[in-house]
């Protein structure tokens, strides 16, 4: 591996660490990575801080759930580098518990700007935003610093009420054919399709090729059904079962082999689709 590849892996790993720590409200763990001129900009007009000290004061808001948001389906890519600075873009999902029985599942995109001095990286800028404007209107106090609190004030009725991250879900780190790492939970995968020595990994928001056999994915993905020699499907994503087809909640149809139909029928438990494809993220 070349020095450039080492640096690329380092900056991608650091970006992953920053995102996981920030959305888990563990800002203190990434303070050593921040440049003195660090600037954070969030989704809402009043969400921004200048300098590590102010960023370190971002805590869980009053009345906010104590549960840690579940982060998955992560993808990061280096946009540019001149040897002195690196620009990284990324996207990921957040499953956020609003109250005891309401889960809001959201999509976020981020941009990170890193400064490089020798082998050391410091974060100059973090910008997180929604995939689209949501909600189109709403009143929130300028003192509301967290999205969880904002949800309680304005969006409770709009929260998605289906938890797509069951306790059986496992975390995966998969590398695609271009060498990019994808961090996601098994519950975010809709299905896996064999393609020679590779497999198509299909999620609600993305699909990519990852090296490995369908059998190897079957062994490490709990709750998935082998419906065909070429298809492995998340049972939670199946809406309907017919003799030779399964219908997923995203309207895709997949073939079922005669050999496996009776086996699948015994264990199949249909799940209702989530409301739309999850509202986008604010944080």
UniProtKB/TrEMBL annotation:
GO terms for molecular function: DNA binding; phosphorelay response regulator activity. InterPro entries: LytR-like (IPR046947), LytTR_DNA-bd_dom (IPR007492). Residues 187-270 form the HTH LytTR-type domain. PANTHER family: STAGE 0 SPORULATION PROTEIN A HOMOLOG, TRANSCRIPTIONAL REGULATOR-RELATED. This is LytTR family transcriptional regulator.
